[in-house]
Amino acid sequence: MNQSPPLISVVIPIHNAQEALGDCLDALERQTMPREKYEIIVVNDGPVDTAIETIADRHGVIFLSQAQRGAAAARNLGAKQAQGDILLFTDADCIPESNWVEAMIAPFADQEIAGVCGLVRTRQTGLVPRFIQLEYDYRYRNIARHTRIDFVNTGTAGYRKHVFMESGGFREHLLGAEDTELSFRLAGQGHKMVFAPEAIVYHSHPESILEYARRKHHYSYWRMIVYRRHPRKAVADSRTPQTQKIQVGLLFLLVAAVVGSIFWRGLVWLAGGLALLFLLISLPFWWWVLRQDLAIGLLTPLLLLVATASVGAGVMAGLTCEWVTLPLGRQKG
Asked: Distance between CA atoms of 161 and 82, rounded to whole angstroms?
């Protein structure tokens, strides 16, 4: 007698992730949801090495592989092979809580729900990871205010399979912010997505300021490419605090004023005023961080400056590299 297909499919894209993947799979195999109710699909993006082959031998884990094309393509391949009615996505460096699958699928009891976003936390104790987590938490406060959201993070994401497939899935030419683009596209088509704060995965954030800055630059670069297709979201979305966008604009003006003061000293006063305004705009977040973690609060002005400068550089790169943005304009949906 043939076994009925699983209701849920968990898809994990991997690339040089053999060290982290084991913990992720262990957590997924210890879920409160009965194991026969969900399948686990691992999609390797790139060459398969010995360590990956060992992981691929795990009982009950479906292993797929493709030539290196990026995480978006790997997720799409996993979705095409999935048998479940609900697609759940996470990453190899994420460790789901034991109730993650159950918490992720709970909102889908409402037939109107097309997408679900869970919550990311970390167990790291370093200064930079703690600051990054507080950034996440501050954004979650913003998301929690909305009954409908327009951002689903692929570290802990869920979609109805038919909605995902009919939409065309992730845009594979995007090498960053593909989850943002899909979220904006689905929201624009009228699909309802919601936040599920009980669906928690633990993630490994960057440990160094340089890696943090690099990721900020990378993500903001690709987000600007996404904004070309969804310009209204550049104004407001359910996740990004408006203060962050104002801070980037202020930093551009501040740099211009500092450079201009070399030629006209009167601009020094403007630069000082802009710097003060930057700090005032940052005060709500800064005060909130101080109450959560005093040590991180004391470092927040410096870390905010690094974050804003990195985002600003990514924004400029994204705006000026039109050769990358053109393919997005040709995409449908």
From this structure: 9
